[in-house]
Amino acid sequence: MPQHQTQTTRPKVTYAKGDVVLFRDVERYWLGQPGHTFVGRVERFWTHADTRKVLYDLTELSGNRARAGIDPAYMRLLPATDAMHDIDTAPLREPDTGAMTPAAVAWLRQHLAQDSSTLPVRH
């Protein structure tokens, strides 16, 4: 009996200037070299003159290095909700602030210092 291969199709995603993305340098990845995946910020997008494919220019956030002509097939959007998950799920009712992540504590300190009216009302 023949085996059927399943393929995952990813919906076409377009990225905007300022989006934070995860990028994989596919050549380094397949060669087994380190440093093949990094976080970057989209600086611009453009269409290749010959292939008509949309490509992206990124700034690598860890080293502030420019990367040009990135194929979006090797990029994934890093949603803000994922980056802010620790703050959004911080145990605000815990008496011990050590139970909160450093990011949650920093967010609370910043908002308490600015204006306590922005915090949710305690019921």
From TrEMBL:
It comes from the Bacteria. This is Uncharacterized protein.
